[in-house]
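User: For a reading group we're discussing how well predicted structures match intuition. Take Esterase family protein. Before you show the prediction, I'll give you the sequence so everyone sees exactly what went in.
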Amino acid sequence: MAFIDCHFHSESLGVAVSMHVILPQVAKSQIGLASHAFGGKHPTLFLLHGLSDDHTIWMRRTSIERYASQHGIAVIMPAVNRSFYADMASGPKYWEFISEELPVLARSFFPLAEERELNYVAGLSMGGYGAMKLALAHPNRYAAGASLSGTVDIVERANAFPNDFQLIYGDVTTIKNTPNDLFYLANQLVASKQEQPKLYQCCGTEDFLYEDNIRFRDYCLAQGLAITYEEESATHEWGYWDRKIQRVLEWLPLPTRD
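Assistant: Thanks. Here is the predicted 3D structure of Esterase family protein, as structure tokens, for the group to look at:
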């Protein structure tokens, strides 16, 4: 695999930003690493960080490079600060950046596939929310979305992050039934009759977000969305996420290698 620490300018944010990028490389002389690649441009996973982290965290806390190498998939890991992947009421337009600008720029820099069936998104905690938001809001762009211990019910969590949410949303009482509400997005997706992305959701049973995740799972199932849900005894911690990101990579609808 090739690992790239990429720095570039974002027009949406009006500032220099960073992302970490992993690209497949087949290297027969590498010791102890199974490496694969598809022909042509690479299937791509956009992998999102949580509230207290940045674009470096997946490389620092997991073996994502080794896991991705086994599957021949590129991984894009951007930084969005504490934005909840939203266009902030008092701050930059992070939703515009992550949903519109970043995919276009990443594909201009690197040989990444553009086809829906070769693009996926995943994340943990705040990033799990961002991954579901992208998959539900843009089902024509992503074939799959995965949330690991996601903050999937931000209406319920509005008072947990009062300073952040005031900057992000302004009046937190207005979040419900808007495109920032995953329950609303799930309902809108079903009503639109568009092709649905595959959805994966997991959460530890001792996680403080467990009840939120059960509520979102049950809502998706009631709406007729096909969602794979898994739980086990775990808290909100990296040992669990390191295991589950391997599961996500196995679950993704990757094409068959030649």
